[in-house]
């Protein structure tokens, strides 16, 4: 009785772990993909602020302010409106750890 | 003895190395093949995105006729003398650093059931996924009297390159008090605000060189156009009396154009210009049409809005101007955004990468004056089987000069960014 139960638990745990790994992979793929949209404008910054190296809380707060409209920038309001909380936090973290692109102005 | 021993060791070493290398070699041999036809903002972006996101995972071949790409975006600023021609031209050589093979040839035939295309040199390229990004073709014959030969006298300059230079030469030859005629196309076409940005940049070139008495007449095929209020306001402020826009309800339609006398006959009147710029109606590039990827009725290629996959072939993706992309305008920004969507779908198809919902975005900046740019754009999502606008924005009339000046800087940043996404970080 105990043995099959333990096996079932182990199997369930394994499924959980695999599920979590798949979710992680999905999320990291999604963030890399979304970051491409950011880089379409922020990739070579003089006027448009650079993102690489910017502290994550700063980027996340700005994206949330654009999403809820408390900060106004027509392009950023339209972009941020399409981002969920996980995307905002994930992108902020990703850019905080990104190497600045050569020749790019520092934030 | 010694020599034999050394040779033996060498052979053994070689064999050993061979054994070790075998799995890699095996993997290399079974790398899925992605062939991309067309090296513009759509095709070049999908090549580089795949190569950067999945190093060495694909065998990527980009087929593009031209060795140097001349961006159509930014080319109106060259007319105005705000950019030099060389700054619009970019080499594909940086793509080799990412393992992308670039073949400068014309793709001729596709055998889609066998998944192989043939180039003009008879080189055959087989593929697991094919990306078709040929841009637009110009429907010369829809402007009576216009044809590729006539374009040598009355340029379209809607494909950047020699035509762009010809238009600039003709603009330079316009004297004060003379006329310029622009024939603007019906929807849909590449770069909706382009003809009006072009009129603005021509007026800037003329006025800033003591030719403010020249006149520009736009004979449009449409009753309204992109960012109309913004352009009209800017023309009034910066080039008063220089630019006149006539919709078909006023000119009554183009009857005939004559490249020898540089005359455009409409129902209303005859318009003669020192420079006549004819921008004809457009449809998907010939490659997409000859490969039966376009809807013969509309001339554009139907795609799945989730992935940019051709609605007619699951192994083919159509991105950029040639695609029927719902509410998205045909722009370099849209093409670049669609390329990322296609890259994700290709990685999901061939590598089992996760399928991600598309994030489609566009911004079109247009220059009205040297220090005055406006923008329009939005975010798009698949809805009810088509790419649908879910958020949009457009510059406001009467905006502060600082906002407009900043938009000039934004568009310059975007230019460098997209060029880096097409040709690699060194290109910008």
TrEMBL record, chain A:
Q: Which residues form the signal peptide?
A: 1-23
Its keywords, alphabetically, are: Heme, Iron, Metal-binding, Signal
Gene Ontology molecular functions: electron transfer activity; heme binding; metal ion binding
| Residue stretches in coiled coil | none
Start and end residues of each Cytochrome c domain: 23-99
Name of this chain's protein: Cytochrome c domain-containing protein
Automatic annotation (TrEMBL), chain B:
Q: Where is the signal peptide?
A: none
Question: Which residues does the UniProt record annotate as the domain FAD/NAD(P)-binding?
Answer: 33-153
Select a single GO molecular function from the record's annotations and give it.
Answer: sulfide dehydrogenase activity
Q: Please give the Gene3D superfamilies that the UniProt record associates with this protein.
A: FAD/NAD(P)-binding domain (3.50.50.60), Flavocytochrome c sulphide dehydrogenase, flavin-binding domain (3.90.760.10)
EC numbers, comma separated: 1.8.2.3
For the protein in the UniProt heading, the enzyme class is oxidoreductase
Show the Pfam families listed in the entry.
FCSD-flav_bind, FCSD_central, Pyr_redox_2
Name recorded for this polypeptide: Sulfide dehydrogenase [flavocytochrome c] flavoprotein chain
- Could you tell me which species this protein originates from? Methylobrevis pamukkalensis
């Amino acid at each position: 009785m105990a043995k099959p139960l333990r096996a079932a638990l182990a199997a369930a745990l394994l499924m959980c772990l695999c599920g979590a790994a798949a979710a992680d992979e999905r999320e990291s793929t999604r963030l890399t993909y979304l970051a491409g949209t950011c880089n379409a404008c922020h990739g070579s910054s003089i006027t448009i602020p650079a993102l690489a190296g910017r502290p994550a809380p700063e980027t996340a707060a700005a994206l949330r302010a654009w999403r809820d409209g408390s900060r106004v920038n027509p392009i950023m309001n339209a972009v941020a409106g399409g981002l969920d909380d996980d995307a905002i936090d994930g992108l902020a973290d990703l850019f905080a750890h990104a190497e600045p692109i050569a020749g790019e102005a520092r934030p | 003895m010694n020599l034999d021993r050394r040779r033996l060791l060498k052979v053994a070493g070689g064999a050993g190395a061979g054994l070790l290398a075998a799995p890699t070699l095996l993997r290399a041999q079974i790398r899925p093949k992605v062939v991309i036809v067309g090296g513009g903002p759509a095709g070049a972006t999908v090549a580089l995105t795949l190569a950067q996101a999945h190093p060495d995972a694909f065998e990527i071949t980009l087929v593009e006729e031209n060795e140097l790409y001349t961006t159509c975006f930014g080319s109106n600023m060259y007319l105005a003398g705000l950019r030099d021609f060389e700054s619009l031209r970019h080499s594909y050589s940086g793509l080799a650093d990412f393992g992308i093979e670039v073949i400068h040839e014309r793709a001729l035939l596709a055998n889609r059931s066998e998944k192989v295309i043939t180039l003009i040199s008879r080189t055959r390229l087989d593929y697991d996924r094919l990306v078709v990004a040929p841009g637009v073709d110009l429907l010369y014959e829809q402007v009576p009297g216009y044809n590729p030969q006539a374009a040598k006298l009355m340029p379209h300059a809607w494909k950047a390159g020699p035509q762009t230079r010809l238009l600039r030469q003709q603009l330079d030859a316009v004297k004060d008090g003379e006329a310029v005629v622009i024939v603007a196309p019906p929807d849909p076409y590449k770069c909706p605000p382009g003809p009006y940005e072009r009129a603005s940049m021509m007026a800037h070139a003329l006025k800033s060189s003591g030719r403010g008495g020249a006149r520009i007449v736009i004979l449009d095929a449409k009753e309204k156009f992109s960012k109309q209020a913004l352009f009209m306001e800017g023309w009034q402020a910066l080039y008063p009396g220089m630019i006149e826009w006539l919709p078909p309800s006023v000119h009554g339609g183009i009857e005939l154009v004559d490249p020898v006398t540089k005359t455009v006959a409409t129902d209303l009147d005859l318009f003669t210009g020192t420079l006549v710029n004819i921008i004809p109606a457009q449809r998907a590039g010939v490659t997409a049409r000859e490969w039966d990827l376009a809807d013969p009725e509309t001339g554009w290629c139907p795609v799945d809005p989730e992935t940019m996959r051709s609605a007619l072939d699951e192994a083919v993706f159509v991105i950029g101007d040639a695609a029927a992309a719902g509410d998205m305008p045909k722009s370099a920004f849209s093409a670049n955004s669609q390329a990322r969507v296609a890259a994700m779908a290709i990685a999901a198809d061939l590598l089992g990468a996760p399928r991600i919902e598309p994030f489609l975005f566009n911004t079109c900046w247009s220059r009205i004056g040297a220090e005055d740019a406006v923008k329009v754009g939005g975010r798009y999502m698949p809805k009810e089987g088509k790419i649908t606008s879910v958020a949009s924005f457009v510059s406001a009339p009467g905006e502060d000069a600082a906002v407009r000046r900043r938009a000039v800087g934004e568009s310059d940043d975007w230019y460098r960014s997209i060029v880096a996404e097409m040709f690699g970080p060194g290109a910008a």
